[in-house]
Structure formats: C-alpha cells, structure tokens
Design brief:
four-stranded mixed sheet, 7 strands, mainly alpha, 21 helices, about 500 residues
C-alpha cells in the first residue's frame, strides 16, 4: 500500500471514531441513561410481589423436569385440575435469573426488563414524534402508569412486546412495509410469555381495519393505505395468528385471554388488580389530566389528531377504567400520541450543538447512581420477610405442623415456594381455583359472608395461616375448637384443638 493511500485511511478512521464517540455520548443517550437510575430507584423497594413465588416455582419445575405442567400441582383443593400454563416461557426466564443470582438475580431480571421496556418506549416515542427531547416526556408517561405493574412477573415481557409491536406497525405504515414481517415471530414468542398477546392481536386487527378508511374532518384525519402496504399487513397478520397455535400447550393457550374475560367473573371481581380504577388511585388523576391535555391540544391548538390514535386511546382508557392493572397498557398507548402532539413545543435535538464531554459526565453519574441504588441481598431478604409469612413457615417446619392448611390468598405463592410440603388452599392462580369452584367459597369465607365453620368443615381444614390484618383473624379465636398456635407481626396460625396433638400441642398426623 502506498504512503498516500495510508495517509487517506488514517484521517477516515479517525473521523469514523470521532463520529462514533459523538453518537455514544450524545444527548439522546444521556436521556436513555437517565432511565436506568430512575428505574432502579423505582424498583428497589418493590421486590416481593405475591405472585412472583409461584411463577418462580413453575419455572423451577419446567427447568428441572423439561416438562410444562398442564394440571395444578400446588394445591389440594384443585389438585390435578386442568390448568393453562400460558406464561411458561417467562417463568423459565424468571427461574434462570434466580438460579444465576438468587434474590439479586430476580431483582436484576426486573430492572433489566424495566429498563428495556422504558428504552423501547423512548425509541417508539422518538420515532413516532420525530423529537427525541419530547420523547423523554412520553416515556415518563409510560413509567408513571407502569408503576401499577412493575414486578417480577411475566407481564413485564408482555408489555415489552406490546411496545415492539406498536413500533413495527408504525415503521411498516410510514416507512418500509417489510417491517410487518417481524410480527409473526414476535407473536410466536409473545403467546408463550403472557396473555397480553391478545391485546396485540386486537391492536393489529384494528390498524388493518382502519387502513381502509380515508377522510379529513377539521383536525381529525385518517389516511387510507395503499393496497400493497395493506396486503403486507394482512399476510403478516395471518401468519401471526398461525404462529399463535405453534405453542407446546395447544389451542387452550391461544384462547386463554378470552376465557379469562368470559368465564372468570369471580376472579375479575374479587382480585384487587382486576377491579375497576378508583378515583382514589394515585394514577387516576394523572390519567384524567393527560386525557384532558390531549383534548385541549386538539381543541385549542388544532393539533392534528389521527383516527387510529383516538381509537387506540379509547381502547386503552376503557381497559384502564375497567381493570386498574391495565393502566400499564394505557400508558404505553398514550405516550407516543402525546409525544407527537407536543413535538413542536420543544426544540428538537441539534447534533451540532451537542456537548459530548458534558454528556459523558451525566452518563457516568446516571450509571453510578443506578449501581449505588441497586438493593443488596440483605435488603431484598428483608423485603421478603416484611411481605411474607417467613417466620410462620419456619414455625410450621420446626414444630412439624401437618394436615390441611387454609392460607391467605396473597400468601399462597410464597407458601408454594417456601413450604412445598404443605399444599395450599388457594394462591394467585385465581383461574384454576375458579374453575374448580374453590375461589367463590374462599371469597365468602375471607370476607365474612358465610358461616366460617362451613368452609373449615367442608374442606377438613386442620390449621389456618392468615395475615394478622385479615378479618378472619378476629373471628377464628371466637370459634369453639380453634386456638392460636403462633403469632407475629406479619401472620398468625390457628389450629384445631380437636386434632391429634404432638407434645407441643400442635395438630399433626
């Protein structure tokens, strides 16, 4: 190689390196990195979700047996009743995280997925609005409503996929229609991770139906798609639906969300997260304010509103008002819409005025804060002990308590993980207990709507492990034949006095 050619290469290489450094230390990257400490600070005290434990146990069973259970294995009230393991793939990743790092591994799983979700939301809002600064406000909307559901649960993966779907639909509609071909593999994964894939199907079908409509009425517009782009979408949708049935469980996996809506009325009415949104919820007022903001932007500023956006917004709002857990979904749907409407109120990112050195400092500080804020193993164990009957389980084991247990609904998951030798009465899998006819009985018992002795006798209960705050904790001491065997600040154990007694006076068999 001649010296002249070598001299030409070196300046190009230096220029490429400088360009790469400016990209790495750009202002949008600063905004993305700021999401990391925000996420960790939000999650550091939200570790022990009641449902985390049975998801963890399911993941362990799948990992160790290489088999996906399709019947109940954890209770005696619904033992071997048919069950749909519709989140098996997510549960496998949860157990893999625990296997790799214990409680810290689970927290890392939650933090990583939450960061990925928020970064994906930022990318969606940035591309949709064309303004990388305003996109940060959009992702804060996702963060705000996401606080209703940030937990070590499969829904985290499901909502990441929801954002990815919205991004693919937007890119396929506004740029290259070949982006639609990414939808079938997305749904093939999604159906095995979380039931929110059904929301994705509804959104994709809605986008297809609206692609036939073209009109403008004032600031409301709907752009009719060209036939070729529409064909790409309909074929990708057909393949996506086919991909849903390519799962190891079968058609019951695909129709599970529909069954939830139509045949699980008790669970939807009694489980807190499935109940309608209350005005007292901390996120209810922000939701109303954001909806008002969208309305005023259209009314006062004559901001362009798209029919598809309004339909998505109406769908998300209806879901959130019907079930408070769906606030997560409405946050994802409203964020890009609001970002687009506000895109001209804040100047866009100007690469020429960027300050890479200052950006590097902010990036370093953001990551440093995230590392500092990540909770220790001891802090996580403390959270587990504060939220679960850890000491009560120790009592059960050390005093060899046996027989049929009746447990609090929120304790069921932890008992499945920590005390598998004691089959639970009920746990967070409300579906299988409703199908088995147990959930209705338990709900009446727990809310003092029936004679408590009827359920205790019907199921042959030998001891009860319930929260000290449960209404039944004040009733059981008044029932003849029951006494307190153990009590702490978290839980209380009642045993039948008629049972055969061991030397410590605890019922055993």
């Amino acid at each position: 190689m001649s010296s002249t050619a070598a001299a030409d290469i070196h300046p190009k290489a230096a220029s490429n390196a400088a360009h790469m450094l400016r990209l790495v230390f750009s202002f949008p990257v600063v905004l993305v990195c700021m999401l990391v400490p925000l996420t960790v600070l939000t999650l550091r005290s939200r570790f022990s979700d009641p449902d985390m434990w049975w998801h963890l146990k399911m993941g362990e069973i799948i990992w160790t047996t290489h088999h996906i259970p399709t019947v109940d294995l954890f209770s005696y009230t619904a033992r071997h009743h048919a069950w749909v393991p519709h989140e098996w793939l997510s549960q496998l990743t949860i157990y893999a995280a625990y296997r790799a790092g214990g409680y810290s591994g689970l927290m890392a799983w939650l933090c990583i997925l939450s960061v990925v979700l928020l970064i994906a939301g930022y990318v969606l809002c940035s591309i949709y609005s064309g303004n990388s600064k305003v996109a940060f406000l959009g992702v804060l909307v996702i963060w705000l409503f996401g606080t209703v559901g940030f937990a070590v649960r499969p829904q985290m993966i499901g909502y990441v996929f929801l954002i990815v779907e919205l991004l693919l639909l937007h890119l396929g509609r506004t740029r290259d229609r070949r982006w639609f071909w990414a939808l079938p593999p997305l749904f093939a994964l999604w159906v095995n991770c979380h039931g929110s894939f059904f929301i994705g199907v509804v959104i994709a079908v809605t986008a297809y139906v609206l692609s036939f409509i073209g009109f403008q009425a004032g600031s409301l517009i709907s752009v009719k798609w060209e036939p070729a782009r529409r064909r790409y979408l309909v074929w990708s949708l057909a393949l996506s639906v086919a991909a849903l049935f390519m799962n190891p469980v079968g058609r019951s996996q695909v129709f599970y969300p529909i069954d939830t809506m139509l045949h699980q009325s008790i669970g939807l009415s009694q489980v807190q997260e499935w109940q309608p949104l209350q005005i007292t919820d901390a996120r209810a007022v922000p939701l109303l304010l954001l909806l008002l903001c969208v309305f005023l932007l259209v009314l006062v500023r004559r901001s362009e509103s798209q029919l598809q956006e309004l339909v998505f917004l109406a769908l998300g709002t209806w879901m959130a008002l019907s079930h408070q857990r769906m606030l997560f979904v409405v946050g994802i749907l409203i964020a890009p819409i609001l970002s687009r409407m506000l895109s001209d109120l804040w100047g866009n990112y100007d690469r020429e005025h960027d300050r890479p050195l200052l950006n590097a400092v902010f990036i370093f500080l953001s990551l440093l804060i995230a590392v500092w804020a990540f909770p220790s193993q001891r802090a996580l164990a403390t959270q587990v002990e504060q939220a679960n009957p850890v000491k009560a389980v120790t009592f059960l084991k050390t005093h060899h308590v046996s027989g049929r247990m009746l447990n609090d609904y929120v304790y069921g998951g932890y008992l499945i993980w920590a005390a598998p030798e004691h089959p639970v009465f009920v746990d967070g899998r409300s579906d299988v207990f409703e199908w088995a006819g147990v959930l209705g009985d338990f709900g009446k018992w727990a809310m003092l709507k029936s004679d408590p002795r009827e359920l205790l006798d019907k199921y042959g209960i030998d001891f009860c492990l319930i929260s000290r705050e449960a209404p039944m904790a004040r009733v059981l001491p008044l029932i003849v034949g029951w006494k307190v065997a153990y009590s702490d600040t978290q839980a209380i154990i009642f045993v039948r006095t008629q049972s055969r007694l061991n030397p410590e006076g605890i019922g055993s068999q």
